[in-house]
Amino acid sequence: MKRIESVNDFVIKFANVNGTGSASANNLFAKALFRMGLPVSPKNIFPSNIQGLPTWYEVRVNEKGYLGRRGGIDIALSVNPQSMAQDIGEVLPGGYFIYDNTKLLDIRLHRDDISIIGVPLTRICNEQYDDPRQRQLFKNVIYVGALAALLDMDFKVLTGLVEDQFKGKKNLVLPNIHALELGYQYARNNLDCPIGIRVQKSDKVGDKILLDGNTALGLGALYGGATVAAWYPITPSTSVVDAFEKYAKRVRIDPGTGQRNYAIVQAEDELSAIGMAIGASWNGARSFTATSGPGVSLMSEFLGLAYFAEIPTVLFNVQRAGPSTGMPTRTQQADILSCAYASHGDTKQVLLFPSTPRECFDFGALSFDLAERLQTPIILMTDLDLGMNDNMSEPLSWDDERKYDRGKVLTAEQLEAGVEFGRYLDVDGDAICYRTYPGTHPTKGAFFTRGTSRNEYAIYTEKGEEYEANMLRLLRKWDTINEYVPAPIIVDCGMETDTAVLYFGTSEEASREALDHLSAEGVHLNAMRVRAFPFNQEVQEFIERHKQVFVIEQNRDAQLRTLLMAEFEFGPDKLKSVLCFDGTPISARNIRKQIKKHLNSDNVLPLHRDTALLRAGETS
Amino acid sequence: MKRIESVNDFVIKFANVNGTGSASANNLFAKALFRMGLPVSPKNIFPSNIQGLPTWYEVRVNEKGYLGRRGGIDIALSVNPQSMAQDIGEVLPGGYFIYDNTKLLDIRLHRDDISIIGVPLTRICNEQYDDPRQRQLFKNVIYVGALAALLDMDFKVLTGLVEDQFKGKKNLVLPNIHALELGYQYARNNLDCPIGIRVQKSDKVGDKILLDGNTALGLGALYGGATVAAWYPITPSTSVVDAFEKYAKRVRIDPGTGQRNYAIVQAEDELSAIGMAIGASWNGARSFTATSGPGVSLMSEFLGLAYFAEIPTVLFNVQRAGPSTGMPTRTQQADILSCAYASHGDTKQVLLFPSTPRECFDFGALSFDLAERLQTPIILMTDLDLGMNDNMSEPLSWDDERKYDRGKVLTAEQLEAGVEFGRYLDVDGDAICYRTYPGTHPTKGAFFTRGTSRNEYAIYTEKGEEYEANMLRLLRKWDTINEYVPAPIIVDCGMETDTAVLYFGTSEEASREALDHLSAEGVHLNAMRVRAFPFNQEVQEFIERHKQVFVIEQNRDAQLRTLLMAEFEFGPDKLKSVLCFDGTPISARNIRKQIKKHLNSDNVLPLHRDTALLRAGETS
Amino acid sequence: MSYQLPKFRHPELPVNDLGYTRADYEGAISTLCAGCGHDSISGAIVRACHELSIEPHKIAKLSGIGCSSKAPTYFLGNSHGFNSVHGRMPSVVTGAALANRDLLYMGVSGDGDTASIGMGQFTHVARRNLNMVYIVMNNGCYGLTKGQDSATADRGSASKKGDPNIYSAIDLCGTALQMGATFVARSFSGDKEQLVPLIKAAISHRGFALIDIVSPCVTFNNNTKSTKSYEFVREHAEATGTIDFVPMHSEITTEYQPGHAHEVTMHDGSSIRLYKMDESLNPFDRRSAVNVLEEHRYSGNILTGLIYMNLDSRDLHEVLETSQRPLNSLDESDLCPGNKMLLNINASLR
Amino acid sequence: MSYQLPKFRHPELPVNDLGYTRADYEGAISTLCAGCGHDSISGAIVRACHELSIEPHKIAKLSGIGCSSKAPTYFLGNSHGFNSVHGRMPSVVTGAALANRDLLYMGVSGDGDTASIGMGQFTHVARRNLNMVYIVMNNGCYGLTKGQDSATADRGSASKKGDPNIYSAIDLCGTALQMGATFVARSFSGDKEQLVPLIKAAISHRGFALIDIVSPCVTFNNNTKSTKSYEFVREHAEATGTIDFVPMHSEITTEYQPGHAHEVTMHDGSSIRLYKMDESLNPFDRRSAVNVLEEHRYSGNILTGLIYMNLDSRDLHEVLETSQRPLNSLDESDLCPGNKMLLNINASLR
Ligand SMILES: Cc1ncc(C[n+]2csc(CCOP(=O)(O)OP(=O)(O)O)c2C)c(N)n1
Ligand SMILES: Cc1ncc(C[n+]2csc(CCOP(=O)(O)OP(=O)(O)O)c2C)c(N)n1
Ligand code: SF4
Ligand code: SF4
Ligand SMILES: [Mg+2]
Ligand SMILES: [Mg+2]
User: Fold this and answer.
1) Looking at the domain that runs over B211-393, which CATH code has it been given?
2) How many angstroms is it from B135 CA to the middle of ligand 3?
3) CATH code: domain of residue C98
4) Model-level pTM?
5) Is A133 on the interface with D (CB under 8 A)?
6) What interface predicted TM-score (ipTM) does this complex get?
7) What are phi and psi for residue A144, nearest 5 degrees?
């Protein structure tokens, strides 16, 4: 058997039972590596269930900084008998399987092509602890200790982390360190340490941070000046508002009066949540709601109202695998069309696509400026992978000079001075009109907001010409919007090429890695990351510059490609789809494979369909 | 002044106040012409309001059988002082303005270029009737009588119609005929009869009927075997269920027991209405719901469930002008995208596009066969213009040999005989699986329906492969669906041409007329009417056969074109949009103008956007 | 803010404390059917707001969809209005009220808008005790879609169409009480003398104030077999007692005999006086209110007047402990924690 | 239909009249948390259906989304199930029941699923008196999304997270009564002796039968400050009386003293016997039921048992006058009027 040997480059997967407190131990492991200067990308793979079912935590460690899913497992650490057969099966030949050998491995599961390493976790716990709860909790910490020895980790980093995590809670620090040591010592004394895979200190993370996108979004909303949050619980978006609340409690409660400079309401459902967000925005407060798939569908009617009545509205959509309830704890980018065209009638909604926690923070705050400036819903499209996993990211930062862009709002003074006010009057020629907040002026400035057609002075109308003029203005506004939304990021490969890739959101990391590999194989591709819909001029130009563009998406129906086709006009065979929609984050391997398949074939059929069928036979 | 002179070819517009009972009188007029063998196309233009606001009734009479909106008014008949200024202004030079001159015309409204004809309607009524309600009602009948004289109509046709309409109600027949005669005699005795515009008996309607699409749809549902109807009132779809109920009361009540072979429930909202339809279908009854724009948005979550869980669902969407509440009493075809991609996640919904009452009936009944055969929602897309106006149509007919296609359902006998049952098992290779009705068999046949992912045996799963396999099967099912939905209708112009038009639904009549005119001008275009989404192979081939195809739609954003672009791949400049979205039905003149504009320009920009802007300056 | 009011006024028109005439509280000309109950309610709202001297621009009027929901266009033309989507006015008001606690929120809805599609939001806004006036113009039918029965139509009642309703009616007052509403009243569009003081009291109440107003639809539901017709309501209405509203700071001018009246002071200093109260009802006791409503459910009579009021009501802002300053008036300096905090956060994430 | 039942059975397992053991009524192994109240309720449903000898495939079990809504997977494995969307089970059951009146409809929901997002549908299905059993597994929180307070959480009650709830609770029994529900009961997952006969009675009832069952969430809401914990409920539950269900055709075997029991016969011939009833409650009188619920709202105790039953209930099929034959069994010959009628219709349209 040829053992896998590597330093600072591997994938480890922890197999646990959910509800047993394994998450924090696994997190401790990942963060320790991060502190050792190693880029890590941990991913939680959990069931839609609270307790007792298999749950996994996959960590990729890669000194080159590739953070997308790689595919394949080098080390499996399994403490869950339910999933053991699957877990051991997934280990790559030459890899390692670490398990709780208090109960010996079922002989039928045995494999000759991997190293099987037993640590008697249950036995150690039973010997050390009487309380069953403690036995369960510390079992997780013990295996982290054992791993430290097996991978030759810096033990002090671990203990330092524990101290930081339980700062001030001494009675928690010592027992945790003790448990770490139990594992560490057991491994040192009984096992061959280190195994073929090792880690060593590095300097590849710079000032980066490890943060989940949802927390970053919550902070973005806080910094963006949101005061009203209305929401309804749904995985994987719940933690956005949780984070907003956590930090608002810290910094938005007046120390003198105890009064809050924010209001959070858990609505009775998503229809109500977005209604509240709209009502608050209409009344001049910055507000938002956060949801996922089913909530987006329910919000559709209100999104149409906000589009048509031009009410600033901020919606954070943390996407999960659809359709319907789908796979609520798996990731996808499959709400693109339902959000872009949300609601009946002619509507077009603005979408933002962040791809890192830092961008979640930035775009989160930006959403409020855009919503108020453009007077339309801004739908920020993130996903479970970005939202609920710790992602390595640029640190967050805020320009203290920055002022909120509150958009076009007439003040009482302006009204008093005789400024002509027509709510839907295009005074500036950019198709964005002036609004007033309720209560501004005793006799000037009041108007009626409605989802029915009305003229430039907000008076109800059923005249075709007036309706049409308004709809055309909204179309012109779309052009203005174009100038405000984040531009794409173009990465030129520096070589002559007529082929490119286009990706967005969480496909970035895997795409970058795939491109590097392809480039090493002599296939050079330019790249563009799209960051918003409407697509800027650059997007069109970039695509036109190339003969062929691979559009990488995490959905079945090539939804972003559909938007590109609808907005611009490209000839047949120009846009080819690279798709992944099995609920796992797209991997570099998968992208590479699909691109190469395209490049080697001279298929003339619409490829996105075909590709989808291809995917059936793939596993990573 | 040159009077407009014509026989059997004109447009007349009645201007009334709503809630005054004018509808039935106007209808009497249109139907009388129809009985005289003249093609007519009456259109109600009514406010979103119950009483007291201006309402219009526009009738086009055209012996050649052109039934689309023509644009321009030859005769205005105005009994509404509120709208008189507008009404007189709309009359084409040389046309006629007929009004109630009990109160003389405001001198400022006078026009020299038209004939102004006064009939003292109020005075006549006041002299004849004491009861104010009668005065109001008969005023309308009187002007119809006057028109009969002015247009040289066959008075007997009118009296015959009245007799048919009030069959058995003698006390209604005579007073109505009396009122008709009052008007007729007044005109005969006091006015120059006939005016330059006249009608005479013809034979251009054959066995056609005059019927609104919603009634036809209700009848389609009845004949299609629907037993459960769940709905929530909304204009313009309300009359679909009204019609279903009306006929169900006639033919579906057991004469012996008085029990009903149907159940209609007015739900508390649209979320509930579609939930009921889905529940009933799941349980093996044919059921449907009907709605319009806002209802479609609210149904979006459930439509995703029905798509993913593969539950036959029939939804009739009678479109109105959006977005949001929009113009609820105006027409549009603007829910194409929101229906085709209804709900979050990767979904694609089947759409049917009828264009005549006969097709409403046929497709209405067909929807149930398709829904059960294909096990997916079928969304029939009609609109206010077709649904609420009387349209000339082929007569309805039903093949008494026809059996309902109940799709793939396993019986207790089959289960007992040991047929393998997996709800999502693709046994036949067409991606459509077998289902069972609840209660079929004591131990075999039960399964769990859900909107979450599951394997072929309907067992809950979170395995990526199983989820993916299911999604790919749904994609293959899309190909099967293709073979079942109605094919397009292609009209070859018989001349060599590389240019064509593509239209659907209520754009048909105006398109046909526009093509005839263009052809007279030497511009020959082939034509295709699309009748369903997914688009059949023929649609693609037709488009590919031509260098340029004008896609005619009644929405702003060229929504059908977007679907065409997304499904197929066409080069730039291939599909050009011809759009109308001011809430009025598209007119032949408008289509002709837009097509000619395109043909004369060599614009290279995406044209659909540009066209939309052009429309702003147009009036018909 | 103190912007000048229009100066020239018809000398005869009575002005209120702010110098406004009633015309300053009116809206556009109604397009509802002549005789529609909703128009009378609009009139009562105009009168109540004028008499209470509320600055019109400090009122926000919000509604759903329906004839009733159109009504806000026809009153308070100097107030901001929001005609939202069908059945969802409560959520929009909730958001609006959270954004600015200093305006008066007047929600207007219909029985279809509230009891059918809006049931979820109606119950929850009542439960949250949002500080608002919630007016239902209740005609037992869907006026705007041409007269279908609504969920408040009584069993057996028949509209113009003629079929007797087969379902039992939802009582909005009873429902609101169930949800913990703190002010519940019922009235009749034809009884302005009762309606105006009720609206004033509802405005003064701190918390959710429902007034369910029977408001006949003359076009579709005013026929003899309807229990929401003018005639039926006139014959079957039973007032809990009469009510007088005395705004804060008003001099007490009306004489009343202590024995026959009950005066309570509301949290804003106004007071209401109840006369000739039904013996069985104590409108300050929820159990009593629930009981009386149940009784009337059986008798088939329509109980009008103030049914329940909780004087200790704590509204949503109070339980949320929101800032006294309207949230929409806060700016960067109040809201943005600045870069320094991010430095700390970043540090904790390494 | 009479398909053969599986023949070999463990000889010791008791079989019911149909020859089924209790195992034939069980479902898949539960994936809920160990100790979750919902599992006990599933067990009670299994027992009730087995003891009543209902053919398992003649039951349809439907639910929304939540831990509670997952429960149907864990009972009645031979019944068709439908896990629909969040809060919308009532509409799906309504459609299903209209399609086939011959099955037994068992709806299962959670307090989030019913009292929040599902409030509109819940109230309306009750109002329509659909013939169904509606079970709420009420834990005062959103289990599946990790423990947020639901709308049935009592004011002041605190879940594991620790913040006391600031809103007043929605009482589903009171709400159902308001809506005109014809069978209303409350129970506790920990009290199988009460639960099983209540489920049986609910099944026998013709019309809408609500059982609101307090069902502690051990993971998020079973702590000391929660009013939905096992401990709190055990200490504060107050039964209206005990209940016995005697199925139709059963021999009367239990002895009871006439003075202490009240026996009523239900429309299907079964009967229920009530013992030791609380004096203040007459469960066949709505006013009494409303009153007792109000009393308990004040006392803070949890009233369990049968609260209200209307013996004259007419369900939705009855008021709609639907055919006795299930609508889903009708075919072309029953439904399609044929071409001849179209000829007449066409003629009338010329
Ligand atoms: C989502 C949605 N569904 C349906 C409608 C159609 N609609 C308009 S008003 C109305 C009912 C109005 O009834 P009610 O609230 O009682 O008001 P009323 O007209 O009787 O005053 C309905 C169903 C709509 N606008 N939106
Ligand atoms: C439309 C929609 N919104 C939100 C969710 C997320 N969600 C799943 S279960 C649930 C609440 C469940 O609470 P409850 O009904 O009380 O059930 P429990 O888990 O407590 O038994 C929520 C909000 C969803 N699935 N669908
Ligand atoms: S239809 Fe009825 S509710 Fe609507 S305006 Fe007319 S009378 Fe009023
Ligand atoms: S989370 Fe609560 S409700 Fe859900 S299964 Fe666990 S104990 Fe039961
Ligand atoms: Mg109404
Ligand atoms: Mg719950």
Assistant:
1) 3.40.50.970
2) 22
3) 3.40.50.970
4) 0.96
5) no
6) 0.96
7) -65, -40
